Amino acid sequence: MNLNLEKPIVFFDLETTGLQISKDRIVEISILKVFPNGNKESKTWLVNPTIPIPPETTEIHGISNEKVANEPTFQHLAEEISELIKNCDLGGYNSNKFDIPLLAEEFLRSGIDFNMKNRKSIDVQNIFHKMEKRTLVAAYKFYCNKDLTNAHSAEADTIATYEVLLSQLKKYNELENNTRFLAEFSQVGGKFADMAGFIRYNEEGKKILSFGKYRGETLEKIWNENPGYFSWINQADFPLYTKNMMSDFATQMKLKNKFNS
To answer: Distance between CA atoms of 250 and 219, rounded to whole angstroms?
Structure first.
């Protein structure tokens, strides 16, 4: 089966130094160019990111600082890559949220204009999530082979959730049957500091924001640069728990500054 294409489409994937689009860099890029007639062209480059690759990131994709030390930087590859994807649509997995924005950052940083005005983008992950339901009803059927006839009844949903977890433990050997492991494994996007995930912990155990212009920045850094941001959050439409945590942190910093002055 061939894709019905009006023009070539480039499927690509990035391995990077991290997940912050504005700060992290590409360490590997792989491209598969598919032409309307079904022909294919592929190429993969290792890339010197010019910044250190964190050890925890190397553990994920296996690309170390030593491995890319003598590889070309993205700036050296930018024109070649730009020419390869010129006048092409783009495809990837989680590409709309991550790969395309980060690729655009790298191009712009290299002085090459990049935009999506005349391109279409296909995000295969989004198609997957839309086509395969992620509801409790679907999970109950998949894991327990039972129909949840009273879905959205609190009692029925509670019992089904418990049974689904038991079935997951039976199905996946890599899951450990203890609450500490399961709690950590079921976290997405890091450990929450507040209940809603607006404040999270980074790898050093420091509280960071997970949204807005200070996304990924520690509360301490935000306080030192813009303490008024804490007041804005407390006046905006955030959960009370989040507001209280921000207020408590602001109080701690005021006390710290008072005793250090």
So the answer is: 9
Q: How many CA atoms lie within 13 A of 224 on its CB side?
A: 7
Q: What does the pLDDT look like over 58-98, one tens digit per residue?
A: 998 999 999 999 999 999 999 999 999 999 999 998 898 88
Give the domain extent around 168. 136-185
**CB neighbours (10 Å) of residue 63?**
20
- Coil, strand, or helix at residue 254? helix
In angstroms, the CA 237 to CA 232 distance is 10
Q: What's the length of the chain?
A: 261
Q: What is the pTM of this model?
A: 0.58
* 16 belongs to a structural domain: yes
36 and 102 share one domain:
yes
Cα 92 to Cα 27, 43, 57, 103, distances in angstroms: 17, 15, 20, 12
User: Looking up tokens 């905006």, which residue turns up?
Assistant: 236
Q: What is the DSSP letter of 213?
A: G
